[in-house]
Structures are given as C-alpha cells and as structure tokens.
UniProtKB/TrEMBL annotation:
Transmembrane spans: 6-24, 31-52, 58-79, 133-158, 170-196, 202-219, 256-278, 290-315, 335-352
CDD domains: TM_PBP1_LivM_like (cd06581)
Name used for this protein in its record: Branched-chain amino acid ABC transporter permease
Chief place where the protein resides: membrane
Species, as recorded: Cylindrospermopsis curvispora GIHE-G1
Length: 368
C-alpha cells in the first residue's frame, strides 16, 4: 500500500508541475497550447541523453528545462504575432513532430547510437543508492518539514478566506483543505516508511515534492506581482495593456518560455519515474490530461491546478481498481467507459461551476 501511495504521489506531483506550466500559459496569459507535451518530451530526452553522456543529473535536468524553454522561444517568435488560434495549431503539430523525430532518429546512448523506436533504458536515476541511516533520517526530517509547511499553508488559506468574509467560498475551501491535508498525511506516512526502509522511489518522491513546492512558491509570487497582473490583463483583453504601454508580445513570450521550462522539468521526473522512455510515452493525450487538471481545479489558480491533478489521479486509481468490479464490461470497454465518465464530470462541472473548483468567475469575466 505504501509503495502504491508513493507511486501515486510521484505521478501526481510530476503532472502537477506539467499542468502548472500549462496554467501559466493558458490560465494566466490566455495562450492556447494543444501541444504542451512537446516541452515535456524535450525535457525528458535531453535529461536522459545528457546523463548517459556523463553529465551530472542536476545539470542534465537544468539543460532539459533550458531546451524546452528554447522551444517556447522558437514557437513564440513564429506564432505570437499572429491570431491566437495559430498557436494552438502550431503547438499540437510541434508536439507530434518532436515525438516522430525521436521515434525515427538514431539517438546517442553512451558510446553508441540506437534507433529511437527502441527507446532508452538503463539510464541514471537520482537517489538509487541506499544512503546511510543519518542521511535517511535527514530526508525524513525534510519530508516532515515539507508536510508541516503544507498543512500550515492550507490552514492559513482557509483562515484568510473566512477572515475576508467569503462565506460562499469558505465551505468549499475547507473541504479542499481537509482532503489535501489528509492526503498529505497519508503520503507523509508512506514516505517515512519508504525512506527509513529505503525505497529509491521514496527518494524520488521527496525530490519531486520539493521541486513542486519550490515552483509553486515562486509562481505564486510571480503571478501576484506586477508581472502577473499584466499577464492577467493580456488574458482578458490585450488591447488594454497595449494602451498602457506594455510590450504584450514580450510578456506572452516570457509566459510561453517559463511554462515550457516548467514542463521540461516535469519531463525529467517523468523519465526518472518510468526508468525507460519510448516515443509512445509522449502521446498528445497527455496534453489533454493536463487541460483536464487545469479546468477541474480552476484556470488561473495554481493551487486549483494541483487540486485538479490530485482529483485526476484519484479518479484514475479508483476507477482502475473498483470499476471492473461494479460494471460488467471487458477491459477495452471499461477503458472507454472511464474516459466517457470523466467527460461527463467535466460537462457537469462546466454547467455547475464553469470557472473550476477554485477558479474565480468574476476575475475571468471582468465582473460581467
């Protein structure tokens, strides 16, 4: 059970990073990206290939983020001066183009070249060597600190909602805080067990949670800064910041680059979790999974994006485990039913709460 919780925590944190990059581009800036998987693909393959060439893992992951950011720069220069729907067309084409290139191109693996269709295996993964007891206790201490900060932040978030007399939001925020708090405690217990009786996946979980916490913290600072307010103004009506003398193209480009870099970092963790990557691991479906997470939680809300990822993976795990026992269908039809049902959930959400669970309707419509 603890190993399965660790697996779910890694998956949820990795795709939270992936979706946070999309939320920055779409939720805060209004940039339509249907090929967000392109950034993750470049981040994953760059990290893996460089690590096989002897580059330290940290530098490999940073290089993967930089390459993904450069892709955002290229796409931005090619499309951002055109109508916004061109961006959606170009990104989905770019995502498939990159996947097909890696599928058909020979790739450097150590001192030899192999066909990309065969995938890449046996690359270096962080924290695989069992550390000594002192280091394991230090890792448990870091996880304890991270969990404490998470619980305190959730408590303060609910308290501020109540203090600001947002009674309509207080109940929903309290429920969300309780759910996230209980999940944090469950992951904490599984993580402590995995770190003490060392499981390399528990080490990877701690690492991705630390990176997610750091990215979330800095994104929250950025979107609440004047820079973030300009992004929101561009999302609502880019003619307004233009009239105020803002370089709209530059701000859009910065959002596309930063969102791409975050997705590139997620690609590194995705590759480390899989332990072997193939081009088919990076299907366009993953982009639309990220869209589901952003829409569920509420676009333009970073905590909502993480909540969307939690709901998505909880739904995936629960339906994969219990649905075959309830619905008498074969495996293929069960898979189709699961997709159909989450579509039904999204349609219901759009009717009941179109801004998402934590989104603010008045902000996204300028109060209209």
């Amino acid at each position: 059970m603890s190993e399965y919780l660790i697996f779910l925590a890694i998956s949820t944190a990795t795709f939270s990073l992936f979706a946070l990059g999309l939320n920055l581009q779409w939720g805060f800036t209004g940039l339509i990206s249907f090929g967000h998987i392109a950034f993750m693909t470049l981040g994953a393959y760059t990290t893996v290939i460089l690590s096989l060439q002897g580059v330290p893992l940290f530098l490999s992951a940073v290089a993967g983020a930089i390459v993904a950011a450069l892709l955002g720069l290229v796409i931005g220069f090619a499309t951002l001066r055109l109508r916004e729907d061109y961006l959606g067309i170009v990104t989905i084409g770019t995502g498939e183009l990159i996947r097909l290139v890696f599928n058909n191109q020979d790739l450097p693996v150590g001192d030899r070249w192999i066909s990309g269709a065969f995938g890449i295996q046996s690359y270096v993964i962080p924290l695989t060597t069992t550390p000594n007891l002192l280091f394991r206790l230090l890792m448990i201490g870091v996880l304890t600190l991270l969990t404490s900060i998470t619980l305190f932040s959730l408590w303060r978030w609910v308290k501020n909602t109540r203090k600001n007399n947002h009674r309509a939001e207080f109940t929903s925020h309290l429920v969300v805080a309780i759910i996230l708090g209980l999940l944090s405690l469950a992951i904490y217990i599984a993580g402590v067990l995995g770190l003490y009786n060392y499981n390399p996946k528990a080490g990877l979980m701690l690492l991705v949670l630390l990176v997610l916490a750091f990215v979330f913290w800095r994104l929250e600072f950025l979107v609440q800064s004047p820079w973030g307010r300009v992004l929101k103004a561009i999302r609502e009506d880019e003619e307004v910041p233009k009239a105020l003398g803002k370089n709209v193209f530059s701000y859009k480009l910065q959002s596309l680059i930063l969102g791409g870099a975050i997705a590139g970092i997620a690609g590194a963790f995705f590759a480390w979790q899989l332990s072997a990557i193939y081009p088919d691991n990076f299907q366009p479906q993953l982009t639309f999974d990220a869209w589901i997470m952003v829409i569920l939680g509420g676009s333009g809300n970073n905590l909502g994006t993480i909540l969307g990822a939690v709901i998505y993976f909880a739904y995936d795990a629960l339906t994969r485990e219990f649905l075959p026992k309830i619905v008498p269908l074969d495996a293929e039809r069960i898979g189709a039913f699961r997709i159909m049902f989450i579509g039904f959930i999204l349609m219901s959400l759009m009717i009941w709460r179109p801004q998402g669970i934590l989104g603010k309707k008045e902000e996204l419509t300028l109060g209209k």
